[in-house]
Amino acid sequence: MPLVLLIDDDPRFIKVVTSLLTRRNFQVRSVSNVEQARHALRRMDIDLALLDLNLPDMDGLSLIHQLREEGNNTPVILLTARSEPHEQALGLRLGGDDYITKPFDPELLLARIHAVLRRSSAGAGRTTDRERSDLVELPPVLIDLSARQVFKHGVAVQLAPMEYAVLEFLALNRGRAVSKEEIMLQVWGTDQGISRTLTEHISRLRRKLGEGLVVTKTGYGYIIPAASEVPETKAQ
């Protein structure tokens, strides 16, 4: 049973979301500030966090930034009444896996939670006997599909679950232009309201792995070019 950490200081909101999730077979723990959230994330095996951005002791954006800087890749869905595009973009850029504005449809929240959890645990059932086919080489990037690890020039690169999911899907379709809608359906399970989230995940992948890895197909989607289409990269 997945354990969800709800980080919010509104008692009524906590009650509603807790009731919704427990009816759908989730365990829920709730905290009302950043200090409590940090403690829970360090001491408990949290599967996913729902993080409100307006907290009494610190802005939620600062918390997500700190978590990622510490190497904590617990999936995080940002929940907030802020609807400004730059706020959404910043939250995703700092490491959020998804972003939902309040008020929201309960079924939408459940769908987003299931999508993030599915991607964060996608490798759990894979065999530990690694075959050569489990390694995808995109020089200077190497993807280990079994271990769900990514390396650049031999150095491990930390990716959030949904960043990895986007990269894996594009890598497995290398040489084929993939539409934004197809990526969103595959990774998030919906093509509605995810476009900005996808754009920010692509931007984060480029910052971490190199600008030339994922190429934009204007007006359509993205592609990781086939090996024959990529100029040789000098060793660094």
What does this protein look like?
The structure is a single chain. The longest helix is centred in the middle third of the chain and has 15 residues, at 106-120. Strand 1 (3-7), helix 1 and strand 2 (27-31) form a beta-alpha-beta unit. The strands form three sheets. A five-stranded parallel sheet has the order 2-1-3-4-5, sandwiched between helices. A four-stranded antiparallel sheet has the order 6-7-8-9, with helices on one face. It folds into two domains: 3-120, Rossmann fold; 132-229, Winged helix-like DNA-binding domain superfamily/Winged helix DNA-binding domain (Arc Repressor Mutant, subunit A, Orthogonal Bundle). The N and C termini lie far apart (45 Å). Residues 123-132 and 230-236 have low confidence and may be disordered. The protein is globular, with a radius of gyration of 18 Å. Helix 6 (161-172) crosses helix 7 (180-188) and helix 6 (161-172) packs across helix 8. 39% of the residues lie in helices and 20% in strands. It has 236 residues and is an alpha/beta fold.
CATH class term of the largest domain = Alpha Beta
How far do the termini sit from each other?
45 Å
Kindly report the CATH topology of the largest domain: Rossmann fold
Radius of gyration: 18 Å
Assign the CATH superfamily of the largest domain: Response regulator
> How many individual β-strands?
12
Strand order of the largest sheet: 2-1-3-4-5
**How many individual domains?**
2
Structural shape: globular
Instruction: Give average pLDDT, whole number.
Output: 84
Low-confidence stretches: 123-132, 230-236
What's the CATH architecture name of the largest domain?
Answer: 3-Layer(aba) Sandwich
The total count of helices amounts to: 8
Helix-strand pattern, N to C? EHEHEHEHEHEEEEHEHHEE
- The proportion of residues in beta strands is 15-25%
Structural category: alpha/beta
Helicity, as a percent range: 25-40%
Largest β sheet strand count, sense and barrel closure: 5 strands, parallel
